[in-house]
Amino acid sequence: MSFFSYFNRVLHGYPSGSKLLVLCSISGGGLIAYADAHSDAERLAVEHNQKEPQKKRVVVLGTGWAATSFLKDLDAKSYDVKVVSPRNYFAFTPLLPSVTCGTVEARSIVEPVRNIIKKRSGQIQFWEAECLKIDPADKKVFCRSSVDENLAGNDNFSLDYDYLVIAVGAQINTFNTPGVLEHCHFLKEVEDAQRIRRAVIDCFEKSVLPELTEEERKTNLQFVIVGGGPTGIEFAAELHDYIHEDLVKIYPLVKDLVKITVIQSGDHILNMFDERISSFAEKKFQRDGIEVLTGCRVVNVSDKFINMKIKSTGEDVSIPHGMVLWSTGVGTRPVVKNFMEQIGQGNRRILTTDEWLHVKGCEDVYALGDCATVDQRKIMEDISTIFKAADKDDSGTLTIEEFQDVVEDIIIRYPQVELYLKSMHFSQLTDLLKDSEGNDTEAVDIDGLKLALSHVDSQMKSLPATAQVASQQGAYLSRCFNLKSKGKHDPEGPRRFRGSGRHEFRPFRYRHLGQFAPLGGEQAAAELPGDWVSMGHSTQWLWYSVYASKQVSWRTRILVVSDWTRRFIFGRDSSRI
């Protein structure tokens, strides 16, 4: 070995091409090839890797609309990305009501997460696990595997992060109503839809058994939906079509005993839509025989009865049920609630972010989708600093020219300004500075500016907990991550009225692209951009087109369309599977 060590030292300074030494063995006539294992190229590669800066660690919690949209657009080559979620798939949740009645199969609306992330440039790691706790002080998340506990290995693990993206969604809000958790169905997950589908068939199968009284059959076939929002109304419509188009053909003896009831605490169903849509839906449900009870608050739910109070009279009413769907809004998940208490948001109902989706009071943490709300800053809170920034000559008044210098920044920073201008039919912000007779003013003082903008904040609205909002937030945040280095040196956002310089990015702004409400019988209602309202059969076909185009892959798009086609030709599947 000393012989080869000697030659290694001798040849160490020569180029790698000369380091091949062929020795002739005199006795055996064989050849021995020797080469230095560490070439110059290898040493340079090692030195380069040592100098290369380490990627920032991004941990994403969730695989819903917000998280998937973020991951699809993120430049994964620039970050070390890790995803944690108890679901190893993305679900197209707007079609969950269709899954409950077999109009669409569950497998048709889900796409494996690993199929989505493998298409990205750069490596993204995924673990099927639930986040149990977030430690913002140490920048760490603690998780537990969602896989079968009987398998070998430890279920618990932790991950360090430089940036954390919370997109865990929300849970059903029961408002602490007794009996809801024990006796009601929910519709948030694919598994929920599958359970409802089995429960509907169970109600019919039980009702056709011999020796049941007619009253017992009626009770089993009384379907109650609590909540008159889009999910509850779409389920009621799907259930009505399922029963009257398919189930009455195979359960003819009980077809006249079925009853569907919608309970709504407000005065109208679909009250977040245009009132024309709400009225259209109520009249259609009346024609279809779907009972709508408005102005009623559910007090408790038992295994056979649902008890409610009529708000107008205070009367207590009980109605029997075979199945109850609870669809009354969303609440905060325990892991998010615990996190909120750690960062000083424990007294809030929902996790709050600023307009850049950055969690207030916590560094390098972002929150998207149903688990958070954007706290839009009021313009009146900054009116003095806005005036000071615009008053360049410190005269105590603003000329129209001085005000125009900050108009663009104001409109970008405070989106409620643009909404207010539209509501007042003004074409530009300077129109607010005109006098009572509509004439231009030469200058305005601080009191005049306050008066002109005093009603702007009335247009502030909380964003709805919809897939559309979550998807846009995910796309927005991924763009911010992709341009982080550029934003530090060349910021694109509005000026900082409280401070110097400009914001790195423009604040998030939601663009409402419209919303649908399928009402059964191949009819739907839609609220489209520009205050357009569409209702009827043509709108249902528009709904088919939009929802097919919004699928995340060609696989799910083909499956969904084939399910719709199968339903038209053969009807829905009535098996319990």
What strand line-up does the widest sheet have? Answer: 9-8-7-4-3-10-21
Q: Percent range for helical residues?
A: 25-40%
Oligomeric assembly: single chain
What is the terminal-to-terminal distance? 71 Å
Low-confidence stretches: 1-39
Instruction: List the total number of helices.
Output: 19
Structural class determined from secondary elements: alpha/beta
In total, how many beta strands?
27
Provide the β-strand percentage band. 15-25%
Major sheet summary line:
7 strands, mixed
Using only CA atoms, what is the Rg? 31 Å
Q: Please state the overall shape, judged from the principal axes of the Cα atoms.
A: globular
Average the pLDDT over all residues and give the rounded result.
Answer: 89
Catalytic activity: a quinone + NADH + H(+) = a quinol + NAD(+); a ubiquinone + NADH + H(+) = a ubiquinol + NAD(+)
GO cellular component, one term: peroxisome
Keywords: Calcium, FAD, Flavoprotein, Membrane, Metal-binding, Mitochondrion, Mitochondrion inner membrane, NAD, NADP, Oxidoreductase, Peroxisome, Transit peptide
Protein name: External alternative NAD(P)H-ubiquinone oxidoreductase B1, mitochondrial
Fold topology:
Elements (H helix, E strand, L loop, with lengths): L1 H10 L9 E4 L6 E4 L5 H12 L4 E6 L3 H9 L5 E7 L3 E3 L4 H5 L9 E3 H5 L6 E12 L4 E6 L10 E5 L2 E4 L4 E2 L7 H4 L6 H18 L6 H7 L1 E5 L3 H21 L8 E6 L10 H14 L2 E4 L1 E6 L3 E6 L5 E5 L2 E4 L3 E2 L2 H9 L8 E3 L11 E3 L4 E3 L8 H8 L7 E2 H14 L1 H9 L19 E2 L1 H7 L14 H16 L1 H6 L25 E6 L2 E6 L3 E5 H13 L4 H17 L7
Parallel strand pairs: 3-4, 3-10, 4-7, 10-21, 12-13, 12-18, 13-14, 20-22
Antiparallel strand pairs: 1-2, 5-6, 7-8, 8-9, 11-19, 15-16, 16-17, 23-24, 25-26, 26-27
Helix pairs in contact: 3-16, 7-8, 12-13, 13-14
